[in-house]
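[Automated response] Your request has been received and processed.

Submitted sequence:
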Amino acid sequence: MPNWNENELTITGPDVNKILETIRSQSGEDEDVRILDFNTIIPYPQMYRDMDKRAEEYREKLSAIANDDPERKQKLEALGAEYGVEPGTPWIKDGYNSGGYEWTCENWGCYDDQTEVLTVDGWKLFSDVHPDDEFFTLNEAGHIELHKSLGYVEKPYSGTMYHFKTRLLDIKVSPDHNMYVTTPRTKIYRFISAKDIPYCRVKFKQNGVWQGVEKDEFVLPVEKRALRTFKERHLCMDDFLEFLGYFLSEGSLNKHPCKRGGHQYFVRITQQKPDSRAKMIECIKRLNFKTYFHKRDIIINDFQLYLYLEQFGHAQEKYIPKDIKGLSSRQLKILLDALVLGDGTRVKSGGFLYYTTSRRLANDMQEIGLKVGTITSLSVDDRVGTVTKYGRRRNHKCYVISYYSNSDKVGSEVNRHQIVKAPYQGNIYCVIVPNHALFVRRNG
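Generated structure:
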């Protein structure tokens, strides 16, 4: 249930008279429900406003109880008794909001079991989300915000689902799920239930404005090696992001034994194209790393840097750290451009393709694509065991992320023949968030 305020309205489809009559009879105030032509506008009855205020009080008091509080158990029990809910439970499946107050979810629209939602910890199936997850949402001004859920829906369903599918869009929802779309006539984004979407061209909102955090410096942490301690080093964040993009695309680590004992630690970036190689060298010089060159390789001898980069593993394990993904759109664009210079291909339309054998990195690349304002799609090249034109054997799946430059027009439009009604039997899911709009994907 949305966290309703006194003056907020909700828009639903035109065939919800039974729900309206239920609310009318429960509220005892006929004037609280007005039925209009296409949409139904319902000022929320006072009794439910009071319940939501009480639910908000419960959430605030619950969040104020620290996890390491020695009296946490007793405080949770006391709080649960005060509000009549299960102690410490902010998340109850099928029919309760996060304050523990019951609401009717029989007609609540949901996604199918193959849909993933974007959280602060990455993409997750709805069946795998957790009460403490923060979800990426879109506010009315078109800005991306992080919010915890107000409630969760998981319920069995047997019936018709609406499948919206194009080359770049794949959404499967129950008929009463609210879709954030615009039509050629209105040109304003609004929520319309799937079954009420007119059989004409509609456009889905697939991007937003990301604020993030601007940071001037990146800090390499303190490291100890035998009798020597390496103090933390402060690097220009923009330069380090560029370097990190090159490393995640083209980098590797090597450790060689020394004749006198111990090891030498090398960071290696391989690049054959002269222009790209020159740009990488300039970036590394600005960071003052000790650098050597051998054929196509740029080699950095730096123990402290080696230990930081060690977390990214081999090519199939690489990823973008959460703290880096939280940076501003401008700084993420620096990282993205460097990644593409290493393992990407620019296309004539102005977009580009990025290739990686790491599923985790592919997921992260979609996330930062959203944060820099582009529309992306993810596909899989599963030609494992075949040989490339250069004679190399393909040993791993390759994930291809497509970025589209004209994000307001490309891929977000759905025509009549791309809306299909399909039978479905299984669980359906949703989470309720303050802004009502989530970022989801299905099949990439």
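Summary generated for your ticket: The chain has a mean pLDDT of 80. The radius of gyration is 26 Å.
If you did not submit this request, please reply to this message.
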